Amino acid sequence: MKQRGPGGERPLSRRPTAGEGAGGHAEPGPPRPKIEKASANDRSLDAIIAADKVAALKLAPVSHETEVRLDRYIALLREWQSKTNLVAPSTLPNLWTRHIADSLQLVDLAPTARRWADLGSGGGFPGVVLACVMAGKPGASVHLVERIAKKAAFLREAIRVTTSPGVVHLAEIGDNVDRITGPVDCVTARALAPLHQLIGFAEPLMRQGAKALFPKGQDVEAELTEATKYWNIQPKLHPSRTGDGWIVELTSAERRG
Questions:
Q1: Are 223 and 194 contacting, i.e. CB atoms less than 8 angstroms apart?
Q2: Would you say 162 and 170 are in contact if contact means Cβ atoms under 8 Å apart?
Q3: 89 preceded by a cis bond (ω within 30 of 0)
Q4: How far apart are alpha carbons 221 and 242 in whole angstroms?
Q5: What strand order describes the sheet that includes 115-119?
């Protein structure tokens, strides 16, 4: 015998609502697509980097094809930066002026150079940038020497996605002569070592005819003074377009004593 509810009335039955089964239990609906939203910080950084790009390309204009390659490179660098420290995090908002334009200005100091060597390439400055510029030029090649395996892996991927003429050598910086085959027009290194040490790394290539271009900061005079204790050199200084630094140009170096 069915029992009545309070007051002698029979409890009201109800039909299952949408999303409920016959037993009145909620059934899971179709999964909603995940919509990933960029954080406000990410969007802000994107805007800052975009504005910095405009400023950088005014300092160092490039062709449309080179700009496309550099865009791919920057996108890859930002992706890898989260797992491999390629640049100082504080410089991310100024990637284009601090790193790209700073690298591009070397091309104007060696306009006929097609074969470059970048010692201690790290995150690809200036090596990958130079390779992006050299793409499509007959006989062009850029040797990127890097001793840290993770960074060398990044450099290889950067050369691949930008379809640029670069060769990555996973090696100690001092082993570059054995690794690099063929003539080199220009050798460079950025934020790698004091000037007197850079000259020691580059001297074998300079002896074979390469010119050296070394970006340096405000303390360039002190570094030159130190370098002359070890080397006979006749440096030429070029003011940097992107800050208060200098670029040291050398065409020869002879060890003292």
A1: yes
A2: no
A3: no
A4: 19
A5: 166-170, 141-146, 115-119, 186-188, 211-216, 246-250, 236-239
Is residue 58 predicted with pLDDT exceeding 90? Answer: yes
d(CA 153, CA 12): 70
pLDDT digits (tens, 9 = 90+) for 118-146: 999 999 999 999 999 999 999 999 999 99
Residue range 183-241, pLDDT digits in tens: 999 999 998 999 999 999 999 999 999 999 999 999 999 999 999 999 999 999 999 99
CA distance 250 to 207: 11
Kindly indicate the confidence band of residue 7, based on its pLDDT and cuts at 50, 70 and 90: very low
- Which sequence spans correspond to the domains of the chain? 103-255
Name the CATH topology of 103-255. Rossmann fold (3.40.50)
Q: Which two tokens stand for residue 57?
A: 């390309």
Q: DSSP labels for 195-257? A: HHHHHHHHHHHHHTT-EEEEEE-TTHHHHHHHHTTTEE---EEEE-SSSS-EEEEES--EE--
